[in-house]
Description:
Blueprint: H1 18-68, E1 76-84, E2 87-97, E3 104-112, E4 121-127, E5 141-143, E6 146-148
Amino acid sequence: MFLTMSPDSPHKSGGFTLIEVLVALAIVTLGMFAVVTQLNRYAMSASYIEQKTLASWIATNTITELSIDSEWAPLGTSELNLEFANRLWRWRAEVTETEIENLRRVDVYVSLSEKPQQIIHRVSGLLEPPVPADYPPTYWIKNSGGLTE
């Protein structure tokens, strides 16, 4: 037994009209556009955070090296290009006097070598004069009550 439908039959055949399909595709397209936009933002943020982290390490390493150097960092500006994490970086250190005689301020600016004017990270610190060569080292001894000199 075959069921046939006439055009004036109250039952419709199941399916989508062309307009319904186009509206559905438009909605899917907008959703995909939003997903791609968010992925792009994520990639850019991840790249920025990576650069900021690496630049921070370079700046703090530079201040540490200046603070443990055998000579007190001279006043003025110094620059250096270096390779770090397979990239070429540039740091600039500006050493200035402070109101305290035995302290110098250092500001370290880090950028990529190809864009030296675009500072990625900046760190400031204070430098003391180096320990004299004949100064005896401090030895710490552990006793039952804690550490003593």
